[in-house]
Amino acid sequence: MVRRSVLDPADVHRYGHREFLDEVFDYRAGEHVTILAPSGGGKTHLSYELLEVTARPDLQAIVFVMKPRDETVQKFTKRTGFRTVRQWPPPVTARLQSKPAGWALWPKTSFDPDIDDSRQYAIFRQAIQDSYRKGNRILFADETYSLENELPNGGLTKWLRMVHTKGRSMECGIWSASQRPAHISMWAYQAHHLFLGNDPTDDAQKRLSEIGAAVDKLLVREVVASLRQYEWLYIHRDSRTMCIVEP
What we know:
Layout: E1 2-3, E2 14-15, H1 17-24, E3 33-36, H2 43-54, E4 60-64, H3 71-80, E5 83-85, H4 92-95, E6 102-105, H5 113-134, E7 137-141, H6 144-149, H7 157-166, E8 172-178, E9 193-196, H8 202-207, H9 217-226, E10 232-236, E11 241-245
Parallel strand pairs: 2-11, 3-8, 3-9, 4-6, 4-7, 5-6, 7-8
Antiparallel strand pairs: 1-11, 9-10, 10-11
């Protein structure tokens, strides 16, 4: 990887997709991950690949599922052995079975937004609170904007902020993905692991200046602008390094 003193985007080291997942990405309990790309940029696919190489029975992941139907989630759980539950904590019968690498927390849907939004708020909040207290957890929200802005009682912003600001010491990490980087909390930009896809919009480019990774922000903007579809700029905040992940 390349350190922040490098000024030419062409000098940023490139890794093949599989090589990066197997040999470069190194996650520790409590670290936060943020993945930003426009719709169709591959953020959901990358998120699940990262979970697949990271989550394990002693570091379980909880995937928050908000859509009534989601084929991607169904394929992911079938491939990885993640178990789908409708409430939190999982039923006793599920907890008595062998411990999975993670859970897909998928509340029941009535197709009445007043009922469903309130139900999701209560269940997701319980999962966040429980995970923050117990630690050794990964909380993954595929669209952080929805958790913060579309649920009742002001959304889950306060709870997500709690994990962002204090979760590392509690070994509870929040993984945030969003297609609209200008509309999510700035705390997501302080993540230990940042993945940025190409986004040419002005609001996205301006938000890059808020990255708290102590890297050259001008270089970050130049690299992001040069990325091809499904390529990622990866920034590791603690080591102040970056690289490009190829498809």
